[in-house]
Design a protein that fits this description.
- The complex is a heterodimer.
- By secondary structure, chain A is mainly alpha-helical.
- Chain A has helices at 8-19, 21-34, 45-55, 60-76, and strands at 6-7, 42-43.
- Chain A has a two-stranded antiparallel sheet with strand order 1-2.
- In chain A, α1 (8-19) crosses α2, α2 (21-34) crosses α3 and α3 (45-55) runs antiparallel to α4 (60-76).
- The longest helix of chain A has 17 residues, at 60-76.
- In chain A, 36% of the residues are buried.
- Chain B is of the alpha+beta class.
- Chain B starts with a strand and ends with a strand.
- The chains are: A mainly alpha, B alpha+beta.
Chain lengths: 83, 395
């Protein structure tokens, strides 16, 4: 099975539903910088996990949404070993 | 047989009698002695346990869900310090209740545990939705709705409200069968033959440019764009506030609340704005108390809310719900309407209810909330404020 990529725009849209589009853009940029990824249009499951693992350290909505994404990614690729 | 929906709003000195009479009147109007679900909303002047006991006894112990409120209304009247009750009877929906306690900080686990007690599929009733009631003072509406959506699954629509207490902001309660509790969410899952429809709309527009939150502490905004947050709010709203008779340089407790009722916060979410009420702010020199998910770097705007826009938005919410229902016949409507809207509209509040009634032309029950919930299929977030949410129950 080829690995699906997640668009950065989609990620911003999801986080932005609560904290707003501009804040979500900042959040994702902060996470991408902190986990040492490049800023690009789409990310692999592995990269999404890195971003969400960083964001789950935040509080409230951001933390819960990150935990949800982590569990969805892991469920989508049950046989994959993530770094 | 289809589904019947009856409503009543009553005022009685005795709490048990208020619950009992409201339920009996609603049952009479529905023309049914068997009740599948009672929805109950009660002012803080009542003893909630007694109200619930009254409803339960009248409905033959039918499943019950509801909340303390800041105003109650139906298709006949808009009232304060009363009990509102709707009964739903029939064979086109099946109802299943579940609850999550001690939710603050434990939203995802709590809602998942609550959802595990609900059926994922009901034979012959292919459409799942839920009415969700939550505490109005735990400031975790975003988290609860996100968690409920995850727990229930992406194909479940959710509508509901956060409990009120007549704007005392002291203690709110969720009603769940015989009990009334704080820091709790009560869910009524609805398995239906035809899908419920939801409409949501607010009547606010921005009066400031985008403003960045630069310093927060817990649920409070200390600084915006590097300046004291309240000063920034005053700067953008000053002229309009003064026209409304509010002296922003000499706030009293009352004018401070009035100020935040008129000038709320807007979060741009791509397709529009989500509204947040800053009325928990009690100090006349700030900081601003923010009732939801907050972080430094977050961008908000000062919003205004003219009366006519609030009336129009109530009608629009009903129109959106009707449009979503398509050709489905509707038995009744449940309206979750923010208590702030009543503050903005004052004596004109019944006009907004009248617009909903005129648009829908079905029995309706409503309560004034401290937060409104409307999560459509595939949405993640669905917590609103100073907004009208209309839930249509098919016949």
């Amino acid at each position: 099975m080829s690995e699906e990529k997640v668009r950065r725009r989609k990620l911003i849209e999801h986080y932005g539903q609560s904290v707003g589009s501009a804040s979500a853009e900042n959040l994702i940029s902060e996470a991408v910088n902190n986990v040492g990824l490049d800023h690009k249009l789409e990310y692999t499951a592995d990269e999404i996990l890195k971003i969400c693992n960083f964001l789950k350290k935040k509080e409230g909505y951001i933390k819960i949404l990150s935990l949800i994404f982590i569990s969805h990614v892991k469920l989508s690729y049950p046989d994959k070993e993530f770094s | 047989m289809g589904t019947k929906f009856g409503t009543a709003v009553v005022k009685e000195a005795d709490s048990f009698q208020a619950g009992s009479l409201a339920a009996k009147e609603a049952m009479k109007k529905a023309g049914s002695e068997k009740v599948n679900l009672s929805l109950v909303f009660a002012s803080s002047v009542y003893n909630y346990s007694e109200v619930i006991r009254g409803v339960k006894e009248a409905t033959g112990n039918a499943p019950l869900i509801g909340a303390s409120s800041a105003g109650e209304f139906n298709e006949e009247k808009a009232s304060k310090e009363s009990v509102g009750c709707a009964v739903i009877s029939g064979d086109t929906h099946r109802f299943f209740l579940s609850r999550a306690d001690n939710l603050k900080g434990n939203e995802l686990k709590g809602m998942k545990k609550a959802a595990e007690k609900l059926p994922s599929k009901v034979e012959g009733y292919p459409f799942n939705s839920a009415i969700l009631m939550m505490d109005g003072l735990t400031f975790n509406g975003d988290e609860v709705v996100l968690s409920a959506g995850e727990a229930m699954g992406p194909n479940v629509k959710i509508a509901g409200g956060a409990a009120g207490d007549d704007l005392k902001f002291e203690s709110t309660r969720v009603f769940y069968n015989e009990e009334s509790s704080a820091d709790m969410a009560g869910m009524a899952m609805i398995a239906s033959k035809a899908p419920v429809a939801i409409g949501v709309q607010h009547g606010h527009s921005p009066i400031s440019p985008p403003l960045t939150i630069t310093k927060t502490r817990g649920n409070t905004i200390c600084e915006i764009d590097g300046k004291p947050a309240l000063e920034v709010w005053k700067e953008y709203a000053r002229e309009k506030a003064e026209k409304a008779g509010i002296d922003v340089d000499e706030f009293t407790e009352k004018t401070l609340t009035d100020f935040f009722v008129r000038f709320e916060a807007g979060i741009h979410i791509g397709t529009g704005y989500k509204i947040r009420f800053l009325g928990g702010t009690k100090k006349t020199d700030g900081p601003l108390v923010f009732p939801g998910a907050i972080s430094e770097g977050m961008v908000i705007r000062v919003m205004e809310s003219p009366k006519q826009d609030q009336i129009d938005s109530a009608r629009k919410a009903a129109e959106i719900a009707l449009q979503a229902a398509g050709n489905t016949e509707i038995a009744g409507a449940v309206v979750f309407d923010c208590a702030c809207r009543n503050l903005i509209l004052g004596d004109d509040f019944p006009k907004a209810v009248g617009e909903i009634k005129k648009t829908l032309n079905v029995p309706l029950i409503g309560f004034e909330t401290y937060g409104e919930i409307a999560k459509e299929i595939s949405q993640l977030s669905g917590f609103h404020q100073t907004t009208t949410v209309v839930l249509l129950i098919p016949a």
